[in-house]
Predict the 3D structure of the following.
Amino acid sequence: MTLVDLKPSQIGIIQTLNGDSHLKSRLMEMGFRKGLKIRMIQHLPFNGPLKIRIRNGMISLRQCDAHNIIVTLNEQ
């Protein structure tokens, strides 16, 4: 399951960051790390960016980048 598959208010746990080395380093600079919880806040319309909460910050992320973040659903 990728980050795009999360529905609003669902929480996922990051398993893997895919993509080329430039994308991986950019995602890591933004705070994405394996094992962190991430909450989907909003899917913007017309394939717009995703609004997510990671740690205590809010991030807007392009859907093409979000397809490279593999998550598992947090069942808590």
The two ends are 17 Å apart (CA to CA). Strands lie at 11-17, 37-43, 50-54, 57-61, 69-73. Residues 21-29 form the longest helix (9 residues).
